[in-house]
Amino acid sequence: DIQMTQSPSSLSASVGDRVTITCRASQSISTSLNWYQQKPGKAPKLLIYAASSLQSGVPSRFSGSGSGTDFTLTISSLQPEDFATYYCQQSYSTLGTFGQGTKLEIK
Amino acid sequence: EVQLVESGGGLVQPGGSLRLSCAASGFTFSSYWMSWVRQAPGKGLEWVANIKQDGSEKYYVDSVKGRFTISRDNAKNSLYLQMNSLRAEDTAVYYCARADWLDIVAMVFWGQGTLVTVSS
Q1: Do B106 and A34 touch (CB under 8 A)?
Q2: Does residue B29 belong to the interface with chain A, where contact is any CB pair within 8 Å?
Q3: CA B18 to chain centre
Q4: Tens of pLDDT along B61-117?
Q5: Distance from CA of A48 to the nearest CA of B (A)
């Protein structure tokens, strides 16, 4: 099974900050990597697919990069609505595993 | 508008069974792979099972193999998850999601989730 490891597990930042979350796969997954945002009590929301493609309707302050085993999600200028938990997920294998999540909190 | 509405969650004793349903609308249900994803209280997301458009292929995470069965009824636009021999660690919110092909498989549309609690 492909394991996905995110870092950090939690992060405190301020509105306007630039933040980066990393995700590492236990084996090469090419660019088969998605990023989701989840707010408390809500279903996840797709932000980025195929490592770097912005899902329709998602603000351009979100971006993704990487290939192989190492990936990043960057938020260029944090907005109040961005404080949430973020998950990476690989779609390389039939059952796509998720990272453990990164909780982004207000400093 | 795409809608996925789960139902069937509740409190069940360890060793018991439960059947979850997901009613789909707003799209051609028979054209999409569908998935169940769960989230234990305060924990992360776990992809539980997938089913192909015609039900001919099914995949499960190891922890539920032999206990859970994913199925679908395309005539009723419905997805199901039969859960047997339930354990405390199966306690979670269960989401159904549509698997879209966006260069790779990604889940764009999700239901609101249904809570399953396994406890005596």
Answers
A1: yes
A2: no
A3: 12
A4: 999 999 999 999 999 999 999 999 999 999 999 999 999 988 888 999 999 999 999
A5: 9
Structure-block tokens of residue A60: 């351009």
- What B6-9 contacts at long range (C-beta under 8 Å, 24+ apart), as own/partner pairs, is B6/B94, B6/B95, B6/B96, B6/B111, B6/B112, B6/B113, B6/B114, B7/B114, B8/B114, B9/B93, B9/B94, B9/B114, B9/B115, B9/B116, B9/B117
Quick: pLDDT tens for A53-105: 999 999 999 999 999 999 999 999 999 999 999 999 999 998 899 999 999 99
- CB of B112 within 8 Å of a chain A CB? The answer is yes
% residues pLDDT > 70 (chain B): 100
Cβ of B59 within 8 Å of Cβ of A95? The answer is: yes
Q: How far is B53 from chain A (nearest CA, A)?
A: 14
Q: Measured between alpha carbons, how far is B47 from B64 in angstroms, rounded to an integer?
A: 11
Contact A87 B111 (CB under 8 A): no
**Intra-chain end-to-end CA distance of chain A, in Å:** 36
Shortest Cα distance from B76 to chain A (angstroms)? 24
**Nearest by Cα to A4 from A105, A96, A103:** A96
Chain A contact set for B60 (CB, 8 A): 95
Token duo for residue A81:
């609505």
Q: What are the angstrom distances between the C-alpha of B80 and each of A86, B4, B23, B50, B115? A: 27, 12, 9, 11, 15
Of A34, A36, A94, the CB nearest to B59: A94
